[in-house]
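Continuing the batch. This is chain 6 of the set; chains 1 through 5 are on the previous pages. Same settings as before, nothing changed between runs. Recording input and output for traceability.
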Amino acid sequence: MIIVYVGILYLVFGNLKANGCRHSDLIRNNESKLILGIDIPVFISTLLISSLYAVVVAKIIQRHKQVHELSRDTATRLKHCGITLGILIIVSFTAVLPGSVYSLSILFNPESVDVSMRRITNSLYIIKPLIEPVIYVLRIKKFRRYLKCYCCRSIRVREAVVVFAAQNNVANN
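Output for chain 6:
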């Protein structure tokens, strides 16, 4: 599917090297094609994925209400899943919404193309897949416990070194 999509984009934009155009001129001249070919599909797919996440959260809430006597572990797991999905939805919209709003503003006002703003919004697109695994890992309680122990251990080691160095300084004077 991705190969077909890239092929369609290639047909729309053509061979960039054959034209001898500068890249920045090409982007400015074809900004509306880029928006319709890339930004709008990304926004639509984000809406679709977020709506599916919302359906899952709704099912979790519905299951929670249907079963009156949930064990404490089940209730905790349901709450944990709902919070994780909520965080993922917020991150998705935070990453995609600025680029989509900027793209729509360019469609209505083509003179307002700003390459630096485009770089910022594209960076947000890249940050999303990088931050999602971190969210999943940090939502694991066992991992957080190990991370806390590791961080506390390194702080204790630093404090011990400082105390030891201070004692040696006092003893040497």
